[in-house]
Amino acid sequence: MANSFLRIGIIGAGGNTRLRHIPGFQAIDNVDVVSVCNRSEASGKQVADEFGIPKVHTDWREVIDDPEIDAVMIGTWPNMHMEATVAALQAGKHVLTEARMARNLEEAESMLAVSKDYPELVAQVVPSPFTLAYDKTITRMIEDGDLGLLYEVFVEFSNGMLADPRAAFSWRLDHELSGVNTLFSGIMHEAVLRWVQTDPEWVIADGLISTMARKDPNTDQLNTVLIPDNISVMARYPQGFKATYLFSAISSSVQRSEVRIAGTAGALHLDLSSNKLYFSATDSNQYDEVEIKDEDRDDWNVEQDFVDSIRDGKPVTLTDFETGVRYMKFSQAVWDSWTDGSKKVWL
Question: Is the bond into 319 cis (omega within 30 degrees of 0)?
Answer without folding.
Answer: yes
